Amino acid sequence: MTRKILPILLILLIHFGYAQKTVDKIPDLKSDNELQVDGLVQPILNDFLKLCSKYNIAYHEKLFKLKVIAVVDTIGITPNGGTLGMLVRNENKDVEKIIFSWVTLLDKEILKVVAFHEFGHYFLGYKHICNDCNKIMATQNTSYFDIISDWDSQVDNLFRDSPEYRKTMHGFAYITH
Q: What does pTM read for this prediction?
């Protein structure tokens, strides 16, 4: 039993240590207003922005209003669950940071789903669409791997059903709950 637990603990410690080195805290606003993107998230952000272009969704203005996109170790996780990603707002209630829990580093596919979820809120204008329905924009998902196994369809639906896409296609936004 101890032999099975030791490798798992070692993996968690390595991932936790790596997340701490990646971003010890949510960095403060830089004076030159340059966006800081964690290297672990950058390829996922690039893929998301390419899809924004494919679906004719403007993103430049929102992108450069952000200060930080990063993996952090400051989001609370408990044995019963926790938040894997979130938008952080300033005192004016403007989003200035998108952060992800270090727990998302346990599997690159989990980070991808959580990143697309948070980017969906920020760039696509989404609110949550359901509680637990194996969709990217669900409040929670019991299986990120079900979403990944149907990734192309999930992403197409994410963009085509988004408030921002509907605005570009129909000239106005649909109200989503």
A: 0.78
| Distance between CA atoms of residues 28 and 128, nearest Å | 28
3-state secondary structure of 137: coil
In a domain, 103, yes or no: yes
Per the CB < 8 A criterion, the answer to whether 161 and 139 are in contact is: no
The total number of structural domains that make up the chain: 1
- For the chain, where are the alpha helices, taking DSSP H only? 2-22, 42-54, 60-63, 108-124, 144-149, 151-160, 163-170
Domain that holds residue 40: 2-170
Domain-located, residue 67:
yes
Going by C-alpha positions, the residue among 50, 56, 78, 69 that lies closest to residue 121 is: 69
pLDDT tens digits for range 119-155: 999 999 999 999 989 999 999 888 889 999 999 999 9
pLDDT tens across 2-24, in order? 444 434 433 443 344 444 344 43
